[in-house]
Input
Amino acid sequence: MVKILIVEDDSTFAQIIEGFLLKKGFTVVLAPTTKQSFKILLEDKFDLLLVDYRLPDGTGLDVLSFSRDQGLAIPTIVMTSFNDVRTAVKSMQLGAFDYITKPINPDELLMVINKSLDKKEDQPLALNNFIKGKSAVADKLYEHINLVAPTDMSVIIQGESGTGKEFAAKTLHLQSKRSNKPFIAIDCGALSKDLAASELFGHVKGAFTGAVTDKKGQFEVANGGTLFLDEVGNLSYEVQVKLLRALQERDIQPLGSTKKIPVDVRIITATNDDLINSIQQGEFREDLYHRLNEFKILLPPLRDRGKDLELFINHFISISNKELGRNVINVDTDAKELLLKYDWPGNLRELGNVIKRMVLLSKDETATIDSLPDEMKLAINQFPKTSGSDLKATNEVNEKHLITETLLKVKYNKSKAAKLLNIDRKTLYSKMERYGIE
Output
């Protein structure tokens, strides 16, 4: 029986979700704080974590980080309000499988849970369900992919969360001379510091506590093929040193072993941020960056894809109709206007999820605006107030967004955040209070 840990401080809401999931045959455990969730995670095993973003003693990101550091590969869904949607999207960099916004629709929750338990790729990024687009931006992107794919050059794929970085990496692999060899993807954001070296290079029995058998590293598993390192900037400095050596020497040394194993692997990496920033902050080795960056591919955000957006909307409706057994053919004027105006911070991943929810909630052949999330309507109503000639309001929105992103990046270490923002802690606290950032 599937066991779910719900980390939520609103006891009434938690009990409602618990009751719904119990009726669906799940086993549920509740934790109202991050501290209690840590204790429970150490004592019991779970198939899924359902975590509120804002908690009394931290955030859902703390639970994500703890789970990752303990080496627990548990799919995690972050529950969030509209005001935290952009931060929730960023949480997927740290290993969250998906996010869902409050108020939560039970059918939507069940759909997201089942998808995460299947541990399949998000449909928007699956190769058999992907569509390239026809915009000038898309043409340039695939021109670059077609150009570099047949080579053995190391490639960095840079783009926001949800833009399809793994799909681009798979396309590079399938169009390469290595296409009949393994394609191995590793989410560096989900690896703990202690386990990353073992995952990449392997270990021998007795190399460390818990190493009860020999284990092949992913470099060896991918031999002859392609190794895709997603969010490579999350690797610790020590692992970066080992990675650089492996690339230079073309061999690896499993932990606890004196034996060197030759490997022939093409490296493709992905990052949502420019690694130059990490180099300047001393978090990423410059020599490793140059080794990885023989060619860079920039994936455009959905808001810059022009008319491709309508193409993607129709594509995802078709996919969702097949998966859900529905027959949505039309989108009414109000719903279409909202879909085209929204800025899609979660890009293709968010679009795919929203369209799937829209199809699920549509009772006939025409989808209406009622089947779209309320936070999208709020976003459209709020952001026009900060555009046009109101420079002060626009600057405030940008400033709030930058502060929120920086706090997330440093896991709410306010001293580090103030340093990165080039302001003192007092000013940071003042701005956080002004903008309602907790």
